[in-house]
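Quick one: sequence plus zinc ion SMILES, need structure tokens.
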Amino acid sequence: MKLSCKEIVRRLPAYIEGGLDRQQYRQLTAHVRSCKHCGIVSDSVRHTMAIYEDRKLLEFEPGLTQSVPVIPHIGK
Ligand SMILES: [Zn+2]
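Reply:
Sure thing.
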């Protein structure tokens, strides 16, 4: 099954947190490596989540990283 960019982006937080099964993980890895848009989005989600990780002990509720606010417009 081939995932669209939209589906990839939706799974990125789980992907980065290690919440996907092995097959999905492989699909996302392959897609993110071959797709320029998703590569960029993946990087920005990663950075955003790293910032939340740093701060969440102080001010964020658990689960907030599920909704990542910084998702740039992608082509598809
Ligand atoms: Zn893509």
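Residues 7 and 28 are 10 Å apart (CA to CA). The two ends are 18 Å apart (CA to CA).
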